[in-house]
């Protein structure tokens, strides 16, 4: 355990600490979905550090301390987290979530995030989505990209995938999210939609926002009509 707090890794420090053998989060018993999610959420960003410290209304302090002291701090300090620490978290999730397969089976990352963010820590949903002309909003913690196979997208980047997915399902972001967690369409042992995906280091969500003023592509003034 590492009880002290460590900031997320940046630039050359991140490369130095995270590159090489015996780095990252050690896998064990189908933990890859959780390992990848935890690494993405905490290794190089502090956007969700409130999960580690803030006393949310429903917050389980035991799970919070395991997450902070046994996983995030060791990852940021040494670049390595042993499988036993992740298993400790999985055991607690099994107990709190009343699902015995959290310790041995492969899960969808969204199921893990919903359990730990909503039921265990009591965090407000991070995303507000609206479909088409419907007034109802969908609150969620992450967005999973669903899309049909696009022949012209051989090696896409994240920007392209998000835009294609939102367009396909006629979705808009109701507001700018404080944190935009996106699950890529690469999952399962048998099928991968794309052999690789290029990370977009910045994501332009201008065209994904509901009722956001945008520039007309013809005259340059504020647009009054939108064509998908």
How is the main sheet built? 3 strands, antiparallel
Shape summary: globular
Widest beta sheet: strand line-up: 4-3-6
Give the name of the CATH superfamily of the largest domain: Cysteine proteinases
Instruction: Report the end-to-end length measured between terminal Cα atoms.
Output: 51 Å
Structural class, judged by helices and strands? alpha/beta
CATH T-level topology of the largest domain: Cathepsin B, Chain A
Proportion of strand residues: 5-15%
Annotation, overall tally of beta strands:
7
Helix content: 25-40%
Structure characterization notes:
This is CYLD hydrolase. GO terms for molecular function: cysteine-type deubiquitinase activity. One of its GO terms (cellular component) is microtubule. Helix 4 (61-78) packs antiparallel against helix 5 (83-97). The model has no long low-confidence stretch (mean pLDDT 89). 19% of the residues are buried. The chain starts with 10 loop residues before the first helix and ends in a 45-residue tail after the last strand. A hairpin with a 5-residue loop joins strand 3 and strand 4 (137-140). The chain has helices spanning 11-18, 32-42, 50-53, 61-78, 83-97, 109-120, 158-168; strands at residues 24-25, 80-81, 127-131, 137-140, 143-144, 171-173, 182-183. The strands form three sheets. The chain has a three-stranded antiparallel sheet with strand order 4-3-6. It has a two-stranded parallel ribbon with strand order 1-2. With 228 residues, the chain is of the alpha/beta class. The radius of gyration is 19 Å and the shape is globular. Helix content is 35%, strand content 9%. It contains seven helices and seven strands. The chain has two domains: 9-118, Cathepsin B, Chain A (Alpha-Beta Complex), CATH 3.90.70.10; 125-221, no CATH class.
